[in-house]
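FORM 12-B: Structure-to-Sequence Request
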């Protein structure tokens, strides 16, 4: 399941991949420090290094872009007013698990992204297994691209997005408790994996999916915990 250049996926209506719209464009590779997040420098002047200047992670949180790992982020709906902040933060892919389609587009423009996927999930009962698996697959396919930074969102960014992020980490071999700590480390209001949405049977199914589809992980450094600010 490596990167697929110049190929568009659009599958609507099937039980497994309902609502999926995913596309890829070959990224322009830029070598960057592993643990740095890039936000627009607020001071005018040339960016001599060829990319926007690094900012503290507190700037991310103030923009409601909550880091989980070096390459996974979670938060609320990505509406028009937030696209510039997301791009300035180095986000390359969006995975929307809310009930409404997003406004982000795929392309090479300043407010475009390398990948955009929509897999709506309900938050009023146990997650539908096939729809959840489709969302987890979308996260994985985006994350394994070179230099990808993936933003997972729902509407408020407190339940469905954090739960999918948590379950993806569990699928990749992280213990549920540790995965929950990672999700909540910089997003204390997150509610990953509430009992009415995720039970032990679903957790077991997610682990089976991960062992079959995600492991060994092609980009293990993307799962490293986002460093605490010092």
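FORM 12-B RESPONSE
SEQUENCE OUT:
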């Amino acid at each position: 399941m490596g990167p697929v250049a110049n190929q568009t996926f659009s599958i609507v209506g099937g039980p497994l991949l309902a609502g999926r719209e995913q596309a890829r464009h070959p990224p322009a590779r830029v070598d960057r420090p592993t643990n740095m997040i890039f936000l627009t420098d607020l001071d005018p002047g040339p960016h001599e290094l060829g990319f926007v200047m690094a900012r503290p992670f507190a700037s991310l949180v103030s923009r409601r872009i909550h880091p989980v790992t070096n390459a996974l982020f979670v938060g609320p709906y990505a509406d028009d007013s937030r696209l510039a902040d997301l791009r300035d933060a180095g986000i390359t892919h969006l995975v929307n698990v809310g009930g409404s389609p997003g406004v982000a587009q795929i392309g090479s423009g300043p407010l475009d992204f390398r990948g955009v996927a929509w897999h709506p999930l309900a938050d009023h009962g146990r997650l539908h297994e096939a729809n959840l698996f489709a969302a987890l697959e979308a996260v994985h396919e985006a994350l394994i691209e070179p230099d990808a930074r993936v933003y997972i969102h729902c509407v408020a960014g407190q339940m469905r997005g954090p739960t999918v992020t948590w379950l993806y980490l569990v699928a990749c071999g992280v213990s549920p408790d540790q995965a929950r700590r990672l999700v909540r480390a910089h997003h204390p209001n997150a509610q990953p994996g509430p009992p009415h949405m995720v039970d032990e049977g679903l957790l077991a199914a997610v682990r089976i999916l991960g062992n079959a589809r995600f492991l060994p992980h092609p980009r293990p450094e993307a799962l490293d915990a986002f460093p605490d600010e010092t």
